[in-house]
Amino acid sequence: MPSLVGGWRSCPCSAAVKPESVCRAAGMAVAVPGVLGQLRAAGLVRRGLVLFAVGVVLALVLNLLQIQRNVALFPEEVVATIFSSAWWIPPCCGTAAAIVGLLYPCIDSHLGEPHKFKREWASVMRCIAVFVGINHASAKLDFANNVQLSLTLATLSLGLWWTFDRSRSGFGLGVTVALLATLIAQLLVYNGVYQYTSPDFLYIRSWLPCIFFSGGVTVGNIGRQLAMGGAEKPHND
């Protein structure tokens, strides 16, 4: 009975497979994951830069509203000329926006629950407009007391999440962002970096967590859309 080794050597197809082609195929198999990894890293950097720029622009515009209304006061020596904003606020907000915007699609992927609700840029732009409107309300509208203002902004912030997100991960990350950002604001005010007029929640305004929550949801939606590569998706209402 012929041996299996001899049978394999006598097979005509074995002669067509040369060592050079095998090495070349193995090299391509090794190179492809490396190229994909580089492309993912480059995409991550691009998304982070876009989110950083968005955070900087939002910080300048929203901080201008707060200063014009005298909600937030800064010492004269730390106030810069651009939009009358302290120089460190835009880069800090830009960094926070990049971190939060990159975390949202990452958490969605980790939980195995991809966000599919209203995935298009038109919805993202409306979300940004509503977020700016909430900040405008906090700075411009007069309420009988801070409790009424806080409840109104809390309702608007939850409405923003329900209208443009509706995901458990989005709500959880929004609450986490609100808690961490509020704690950081408390520490900054306590150390005299800046102050709020008429603080009613330790050193800050009680409605500030609502602003941070809606901001986290807004930046998260931007990050999710950027992670899609800008492809338009139908609504999943």
* Structural category: mainly alpha
In whole angstroms, the N-to-C terminal distance is 69 Å
Kindly estimate the percentage of residues that lie in beta strands according to DSSP. Answer: under 5%
Tell me the overall shape: globular
Report mean pLDDT, rounded to a whole number: 76
Rg over CA atoms, rounded to whole Å, is: 26 Å
Helix content range:
over 70%
Largest sheet properties:
2 strands, antiparallel
The SSE order reads HHHEHHHHEH
Strand arrangement within the widest β-sheet reads: 1-2
Total beta strand runs: 2
Stretches with pLDDT under 50, minimum 5 residues: 4-15, 77-85, 230-237
Count of individual domains: 1
Oligomeric status: single chain
Contiguous helical run count? 8
Can you describe this structure in just a few lines?
The chain is mainly alpha-helical. It is built from 8 helices and 2 strands.
Task: Please describe the topology of this protein.
Elements: H1 4-10, H2 12-16, H3 19-68, E1 72-73, H4 89-111, H5 121-140, H6 146-164, H7 168-190, E2 195-196, H8 208-227
Antiparallel strand pairs: 1-2
Helix pairs in contact: 3-4, 3-5, 3-8, 4-7, 4-8, 5-6, 5-8, 6-8, 7-8
Tell me what you see in this structure.
The protein has 237 residues and is mostly helical. The chain has one domain. 70% of the residues lie in helices and 2% in strands. The chain contains eight helices and two strands. Strands 1-2 form a two-stranded antiparallel sheet. Helix 3 runs antiparallel to helix 8. The longest helix is centred in the first third of the chain and has 50 residues. It is globular, with a radius of gyration of 26 Å. The protein starts with a helix and ends in a 10-residue tail after the last helix.
